[in-house]
Amino acid sequence: MTARKPLARRPRLVGVIKSLADLDSAIRMRKPPDLFELRLDQLAQNVDEVEKKLSKLGAPLIMTARHPREGGANQLSTQQRRDLLLRFLPRARYIDVELRSLLQAARRKNVGRIVSFHNLKGTPDSRTLRTKARAAKSGGANIFKVATRTDTPAQLARLLQFMTNRDADLAVSVMGIGALGAISRVLLAHCGSALIYASLCESQIEGQMSLKQLRAFAIGSAARAV
Prior knowledge:
- The protein has helices at residues 20-28, 47-53, 78-88, 100-108, 126-138, 153-165, 181-190, 211-216; strands at 12-17, 35-39, 61-64, 94-96, 112-119, 143-149, 171-177, 195-199.
- The protein is of the alpha/beta class and 226 residues long.
- Helix 5 (126-138) crosses helix 6 (153-165) and helix 6 runs parallel beside helix 7.
- The protein starts with 11 loop residues before the first strand and ends in a 10-residue tail after the last helix.
């Protein structure tokens, strides 16, 4: 079976579904984004209802169940997160995970692998990020995702430096969180970030823009249809 290729370099818009309200909004969308991300950690109490509605969505799915230390909800254990992801793996186009066993399961099912790194307190230097990108590639990732704190120009500059000087032959999705989070997503989209994440309803992440706002900046393939 042929392995799934990384996403094209043109930015793709990802609508984040983290609540039943988000899910219902996503189902009603006439012009959905390129992908939806299903935050299973946020939806852990409603998985039966979520599972019944997934077939109504108009775009492929990224599945993730984030670790509590990286902003994951409901304090899920490793086993709980693993069970959620395995349950929804057959519905996934991509899976965003750091668990090596699940990366192997995703590869066997020809599901794309996103290995992510989140730092809610700061932004490491570009050398550290390049090291993590190389490790993600060696672990079988198709995309390396970075989301770090960008409250200062220096922090944003580190993300931009990583984007322009990365040395791993791997698609990357890079974004900032915080005071400069919004402008970081616009800048990094134009620097080649493969995926740009957006809220569907009210965002709880500082610096995350809405799908409508990103399309106003002509980011992503769906922007030209609006």
